Every structure is written in C-alpha cells, then in structure tokens.
Amino acid sequence: GAVVSQHPSWVICKSGTSVKIECRSLDFQATTMFWYRQFPKQSLMLMATSNEGSKATYEQGVEKDKFLINHASLTLSTLTVTSAHPEDSSFYICSAKTGGALSPLHFGNGTRLTVT
Amino acid sequence: RKEVEQDPGPFNVPEGATVAFNCTYSNSASQSFFWYRQDCRKEPKLLMSVYSSGNEDGRFTAQLNRASQYISLLIRDSKLSDSATYLCVVTLSIMTTDSWGKLQFGAGTQVVVTP
C-alpha cells in the first residue's frame, strides 16, 4: 500500500493565487521529504529537500520565496506555490524514504497543477 | 554529460516478446540503483532495486555492471500492462554533506507493448 500520501491530486487555479500541496508519510516518520517537479516528457527535477523543524534546502534555480516549504511535523510537509503563473503548471511530486540513505524513494501520488 | 543517461525510446515490443534496455551512470561512487516505473500522468513506483549480483523479480531481471557503469532491465514475456516509462535512479555515495545520499534520475525509457 501507499506509504506517502499527497493532496490534492489535481488543482486548477487562477494566475496570481497561491496553492498549497500537502505530503504526508503514512505509518512512518519522515524527517526529510523531497519535492520534485516534472514537466511533460521530461525527467523528475528535484526542487527542494524538506527538513522537519528547519529550513528547506532548495536546488539551484528554484526560488524559495515562490515555493514555500514547511515541514512542521514528522509526517507532514507542505509546498505552497505562491502567486502562481501559467508557467508553474506542472506535476508536483513529493517523496520520502522509509529507510536509510541508500534506500529507495517512495513517491506520493503527485499533484497536477494547472494555472489559468 | 548527464549523470544518468537512458535511451528515451520508445521501444515498441510485441506482446510476449523480450525487451531489454540500459542506463549508464557517470559517477563511479554511485552506491545504490533502482528501477522505477512511471505510467502516464502518474507518480513513479518502485519496480525493483538492483543488486550487485543481479536479481530477478518474476518477468523482470536487473543487472549491474560496475566496470562499465551501467544497469540494465530485461522484461520477459511482455504484457500490454508493461507499457510505461522506466526510470533509472542512482544514489551517489553517502560520504557527502547530504546524509541522505544524492539521487540522480534518468529521463526514462518508454516501452510500448503492442498486441
């Protein structure tokens, strides 16, 4: 069964509004979660690493003020896309590891964001 | 050069046939390897880990060649439901500032199984 749950699965919003995406670990504590973005026919791109109780680590080129990450508990990380624009339309996926550093990632079901 | 490279395909495979494809990685410090399957507009799902000695899971066989720095995936007796994009994921050494190990994703190989 799923070990990482993501909500919502899809969202349509108007340009200029903000959208919050939730990522929950089920039955395990995730001190670290990862947020990815994927455009059609492209590979997953790591946006940021979310750390419980501390600031997220953003990848180069990802605006931290635009993509706000909050990891307030051991089972929940949120990604807020602020002032969304059509170019932010994408598939956003969170993930976490249930094991150590070399263990595989388990992905949430993803959120398809469409900004009109 | 990309750190993890895959042939994008598509590999068009008749149902029941065998298909195999590789994934090359550039960093010799890579320590763990995985194949994921991603269906259209869905999240990636772990298909199998790849072990040094090679491993098999039903119709799927994964191999690791450290000398040539590639992993492979072979699918026997292909089913229509095997149509998907297969992602290669490589984890670099944990001896970095990132204690979680740095993951590298290939862009995926598309497999299309036809009746």
For this entry, give a set of tags.
heterodimer, A: 116 residues, 7-stranded mixed beta sheet, B: 115 residues, mainly beta, 6-stranded mixed beta sheet, 0% helix, 51% strand
Model description:
The complex is a heterodimer of chains A (116) and B (115). With 116 residues, chain A is mainly β. Chain A has no helices and 11 strands. In chain A, strands 2, 4, 5, 6, 9, 10 and 11 form a 7-stranded mixed β-sheet that branches. In chain A, strands 1-3-8-7 form a 4-stranded antiparallel β-sheet, with no helix packed on it. Chain A is globular. By secondary structure, chain B is mainly β. In chain B, 0% of the residues lie in helices and 51% in strands. Chain B has strands at 4-6, 11-14, 19-25, 32-38, 45-50, 55-57, 60-65, 70-75, 84-91, 103-105, 109-114. In chain B, the strands form 2 sheets. In chain B, strands 2, 4, 5, 9, 10 and 11 form a 6-stranded mixed β-sheet that branches. In chain B, strand 4 and strand 5 (45-50) form a beta hairpin. The mean pLDDT of chain B is 90. The interface between A and B is medium-sized, with 22 and 23 residues.
Rounded to an integer in angstroms, the radius of gyration calculated over CA atoms of chain A is 13 Å
> What is the chain-wise order of helices and strands of chain A?
EEEEEEEEEEE
Oligomer state of the chains in this structure: heterodimer
Average the pLDDT over all residues of chain B and give the rounded result. Answer: 90
